[in-house]
Specification:
2 copies of one chain form a homodimer.
Chain A lengths: L8 H15 L6 H7 L14 H14 L10 H18 L6 H4 L5 H16 L4 H24 L7 H17 L8
The structure holds a DNA duplex.
DNA sequence: ACCTGAACACCGTTCAAGT
DNA sequence: ACCTGAACACCGTTCAAGT
């Protein structure tokens, strides 16, 4: 009895993200991930329950990469910072990012991000129902754009054009919210 | 020589959409589609070049289901009608719909839809660059919402709430465009 | 012309066995 | 405790063979 572990869950998740980013989500197989870790596919089952659990773990790892905004900022700047953080994660993990749109996350990382957005929108003066609705619409608009970018739907356009598109989207979204604090 | 065909490409695509909607995209295998058609998987290769071609064909079939808006309508009503048409296709094909976000389509059906949007936005008075940017942002916002809905990201909310969310999104998007014609 | 059987390399997953 | 080998049912795909 007793044998020092060669791999752990977080190493598996990091490796799976690498595989997705280099060769696409379809290339994320138990075999491919295991091979990178110099282990057989069966060894993974000690650390993830099955492939669905692997993919859910990748989602959680992506969400953990979105930084919590500086609490000192005004609410509208906090929302903008979160949008930028989401886009930065998509840029760092373009292959894995589409998982966020297909695997609804109810994990703690997802809840924390949503709560940050709720706090900002409450400070904007919205009532509770409006806060929740605005969060759903803002998050889908931003996820939709960023996932489209990651999936290459804009690949015919230059980076400068895409950057300006994103800035324009943020301006659009600001315009449907109450006037921000002047500071 | 000569043997009457049992299947054709459009039957394969329809069957693949059915499988996706009933059991999810992951269930769309050559074997599963073939079995529904009472044929072996190898028979499909006479009508689709490979599985990627099958998935691209599904995208094209989904796009063909989006109706061209009535030319008599004002430009803002045409855009609203297109958004509704996209959502209707997602409702009819929730399992297959996420393909639209991951497989950028440059086929004729995709181009026709984009051209419809361009025409409406030009009538709104936007210059060519603004037209193209607005089309990218409108389409990603709408696709993002509708794909999220199809993927079940809102499944904790009632249908009435989701319907109202969609209406609110369309109002947001109207607000960033020039004032529509009064009629 | 259209479909099938056999074959290949590859999936996810299980379970008993090795250390 | 952790990993592997062998096994199973299932992938996508090719190619020669049947009608």
């Amino acid at each position: 009895m007793g044998r020092t572990a060669q791999i752990d869950r977080s190493a598996i998740l990091r490796t799976a993200l690498d595989v997705a980013d280099e060769h696409g989500l379809a290339a994320v197989t138990m075999n491919a991930v295991a091979k990178r870790l110099e282990v057989t596919a069966m060894a993974l089952y000690r650390h993830v329950t099955d492939k669905a659990d692997l993919l859910d773990g990748m989602v959680e790892a992506l969400l953990t990469g979105i930084p919590t905004p500086e609490p000192g900022l005004a609410w509208n700047d906090r929302l903008t910072a979160m949008a930028g953080g989401i886009r930065a994660v998509a840029t760092a993990h373009p292959g894995a990012f589409p998982l966020l749109l297909t695997r609804p996350a109810a994990t703690s990382a997802a809840l924390e991000i949503r709560e940050s957005a709720y706090r900002a929108l409450r400070e904007a003066g919205l009532g509770q129902d409006a806060v929740e609705r605005a969060e759903r619409l803002l998050s889908t608009a931003i996820l939709g754009f960023v996932a489209s970018e990651a999936a290459g739907r804009f690949r015919n356009h230059g980076q400068a054009t895409i950057d300006e598109d994103f800035a324009e989207l943020l301006r659009w979204l600001q315009r449907v919210l109450p006037d921000p604090p002047t500071g």
